[in-house]
Amino acid sequence: MQIAIVGGGIAGLAAAYELEKARAAGAQVDYALYEERPRLGGSLASEIVNGAVLERGPDSFLTEKPAAAELCRELGLGGELLPSNDVARKTYIVVRNRLVALPDGLMFLVPTKLIPTALTRLFGLRTKIRMGLELLHASRPSGGDESVAALVRRHFGQEAVDRLADPLLSGIYGGDAEQLSAQTVLPRLVEMETKYGSLTRGMLAAHKRMRDMAKNSTGPKREAPAIFTALRGGMCQLVDAIVARLDPASLRTGTPASAIRRVTDGGWSVEAGGATEIFNALIMAAPAWAAGELLGPVDVALGSELSGIPYSSSITLNLIYDEKKIGTLPEGFGFLVPAVEGRAMLACTFVHRKFLGRTPPGKAVFRAFLGGMNGEALLAESDEALVGTVRRELGEILGAATLSANVAPEHAQVSRWRRAMAQYAVGHKDRMERIAVRVAELQGLRLVGNAYDGIGVPDCIRLGRQAARELAGTGAKTTAATH
Q1: How far apart are CA 344 and CA 375, in angstroms?
Q2: CB-based burial of residue 478 (10 Å sphere; 0-12 exposed, 13-18 middle, 19+ buried)?
């Protein structure tokens, strides 16, 4: 079995690792991985500057999704797993240049505690009254898909969209709440609305079930795991550990696939670097827009569906400061910036607070995010202009007493990621079903990456490894052809 992997991000690497494992176990399988860049790992890219770990792309993964941590342990990186410092976790929303803490009891955009909601400065009186009356919502029959903004607006009003849903989802997806699919992005809330009507009642019921399960558990009490997990030396540790397990002869870095065709016996031909190779199967781990261009000549409908998945671009900017030269920062991990504030920044993380031990004592690291669906023009700005914009906005938000414009960072790092974040727009679930039908007609094809069934690192790892198991005959086939 000869398998081609197109795309050397974490999904493609996870697939290659699984195929290497199958081969070591005696399976008759071989593979070739094509990556247009000279390096592997996609957006997982780290470097250490003056002792500080700087992440150009994702800085961690959700702990509750096990695929990433499981792979790290398999690779001998268990001791490098670093939980987020949740004892200090606190997130702010920027409201008219002031930092307002998210109220206690907020669960998946749903306020569940009366007093913190009533006292917060995040919402006005009209929104607070509406949140209280939301408990009276009657159950609603499940209908078609709608935007996250439409769902939140119906229950809590426009201010909740502007100051809660939009900044929270922009921080995760780099997207727009008016465009993102409620059915795909917030399926739990859609289910709760169908069953309870009120999202608050539904969330309280779910919380009660969790408390009862914990109370009735006969096993030892366990502390809740940290929300995020990182690697002490940066996410590139995961990339390096996978690559070290792969056969160098199977890696085609700096070699973009230029054409993909079906061959007469049902296999696949991949043209890259002026050469053509024939394979029995194909794992497409490139972004959906690139996959659409390559697969369009094979299946016009599939190519069109893949090309129709929207993407946003992002900019990550890291700044290292001497703590002695800046004032006192607010407690917590950082802040989110609603689009209605009219700023370039979408969010900023206080890295030295979020993950302890990755920044030298006496140093502060700010990690700012720009871009998103409404910030594509920023990609054309120079590094100097972007650094200047972030420094100005940090000073305006945190206050000149904390971060004066006269205090220059010791180091500034700018990373641009063009068309990197897939957007699960309204109708995404239906699109995935149509894609699954087309993929099922093309023997030996699997699609993996952040465009299909989860945008995070664990999702990409899960899909990549599952695709490899299916094709190598070492795992059960999933029901969805894209998995």
Answers
A1: 7
A2: middle
